[in-house]
User: Fold these one by one.
Assistant:
Number 1:
Amino acid sequence: MLQDICYILTMKGKYSEVELLLSCNLLKRLYPVLLFKILNDCPQEIMSTRESYDNGISICECINFFLEKCYSDLYNDDYLNKLYALLKNHIRIVIYILQWKKQHYIDMKLSAKESKNSQSDMIEQTVSIKQILSLLQKHNILFVLKLITDIHDQNYSDIQDLVKEVSLNQSVSFQAYCCIINVLKATFLCEFYNVEHKQITKYFSDMMSHLSSLFPLSLRIETMENIFSLLFLRYEDFNVINVSSKDDCNIRKSIEYEKSGFIANKYAVRDMLYYLWKSTLITTEEIDKLQVLGSHKEMQQLRENLSTFTSTLIDTRWRLKFHMGLYFFENVGTPQESDNPSGVNKLESVISQTPSFPHRITEDTFFYKRDSTSDEIKVKSDSSSESGLLSRNKRRKCSRITAEKTDHLTTKDKLSLINLMLASKESLIVHCLWKGNFQKAQEVVEVMLFYTNNTSYRITYFHNIIH
């Protein structure tokens, strides 16, 4: 009878009354019983209203109350102490999730239009306390937060503080994630660099802040490598749309046509390389400081890994400077209006279609060329004289339109700065000679010779270039 009374009072938030009833040392043994009872009786019904979220938070506060009352009897037992720590952490995560979902529910109510959005429908996933606790037993915290909440639309410092107290390893992983997500946001925003260059700088600065305090150093170097790989992301990687109707299919085709090819433009490449280079300098200094404290073998491995990545950055920075010119390369954070007042060394000059040689090139020549050609493009190029037949045949007319779009995308993809930078140095020399730009060709040769110490190789190399 007393147990039921205490349980009811606790559920109503009358903790002082419960403490008064169980103030006798003999009756304090009821606290663990009440703790397991409330855990067992956690509502399994789905929470989907503001009131239900408030009720769920109240239940979690009751669990915390009983945990604190039981702690004096638990700390002497290792297993019970681990149970206390585990429950304490899990309940804190449950409260965080319920508070976020409550606020999200309020925001959804304030905006009826947002509630109809397919993404919002996906985020508004109904849960119960028992479901969350069950997920936390099987998965790590970050997975559960990502599954139940919109982890991208939250204050990262709040999540970092939450995860840090629960799991140091997951806290480090989340910090690395923050580095990458900031760079990803900046890369997408570089499409509007003139207007958003200040926000882009802030994203990269946040990345530097997270990266500079990321340990161990092996994870930091790995994270820098992952950030560098974002240069090769394509719009097609994100064009995953659930096609549920004919209209949705048309929308998807439209998006694929408008957004195709590499995401990173010249600004994204320049700024990313600039901040990654600063990160390598900072990391090098920290490896030097840790040389005395750490093992020689471990430091040697870190130096080798960083050296390999630094070599890649040096080559990539040189390629960017080669294509875009020194002025653009050095003016990080500068919008397009003042990129190059003299108008030289622009991308257009590098990929000029007018050669200085007398012979005619029948194909487009680029530093990097995809070897796949769709059948639709071939149809377009081989059947231009059959325009009369095409006009009378809707299917072939549709194929020609599709081919023109594909041809446009292929050409646009070829002109991408990333594609140009992926070319081998031999291809760069050949292209510069084809254009009659001997100064650029000499620059590439000098870079090649800088990395080449074998004299016989140099002679063979020049022989191959000339012929």
Note: The chain has three domains: 1-166, 167-233+253-341, 374-419.
Number 2:
Amino acid sequence: MSRAQSPDRTVSESIGGKDATLEVYDADPDFEARIRIEREDRWEFGLHEDGVAELLTTTAVDGTVHAKPTIPQWVADSLYEVEIPEIIGIAGVA
């Protein structure tokens, strides 16, 4: 996905009094789509054909994910809002 590419869909919402933005990019060479979620940190996921989101990067743990982090509940809720109930590459949801 080119960083200059515009998202195909953007969802903005207020979660716990803080604005969050979810962007969906349909054109990705490795995944069905790519999803970027930002609030205090940025979380980026690749979406597989079966609808499972795979954590690729996050600013919460120094960029590329080497260890499986625990994602905040607001990230899981944001994905659930766009009908993505399963996430791989994480330790759990906090």
Note: The longest helix spans residues 73-81.
